[in-house]
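debug: dumping io for the single-chain case to check the tokenizer round-trip. Nothing else runs in this session.
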Amino acid sequence: MSLLLRDNPPRSSVLDLASGSGAMLARLGDNGFTDLQAVELDVEKFHLEGTNPRRIDLNSEFCRQFDRRFALITAVEVIEHLDCPRHFLRQVWELLQDGGHLLLTTPNVSNWVGRIKFFLWGEFRWFDEAQYHQHGHISPLTDVHIGLILNEIGFHLVNSTSAGDFSGPPKRLATAPVSWLFRAAFGPGTWRDANIYLATKSATRPIVTRQ
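debug: decoded output
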């Protein structure tokens, strides 16, 4: 939320994609955002009063389900579950107003634990076979790829950071020397478990040609 508020986006016309229980929208409402809209495939688990989520598959051409555009779209821990991240971000681009904001998060596969796992077993953290079947983590994205894809589709990356730690306090304390060593050697992007991106929509998409 601090990353979002730092850029001072318009505080109305919000669409939260894959809203879950509605916790993100509730947090936005607590910070003065209004006209809160939600998309959630499993609508039974959505519990934010005053908002009725739309049941929409985000692998679809979901921008066609709306007759309006939004000033802010949030997508918290969803893109890694989708068949085609580029398709998803193109749909978001269509739904945003010119200059509108996108807040996007995804697991940080380059954190220090992930780097060790990839070195030892050649697998991304959170994207092994168990995560594939249990949690539907099917599309790993590195920090570099997120930046390239956003630019390719027509977004301007305003800011990014990493945050969060899914380990309990005892594990964090025990592994602190290693995590600090990686942070000192490779930067803060190796420290936390989720990457967070704030981007704005450009007025036109760039023309991208691939060989």
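debug: round-trip ok. Residues 2-110+124-166+193-201 form a domain with the Rossmann fold fold (CATH 3.40.50.150).
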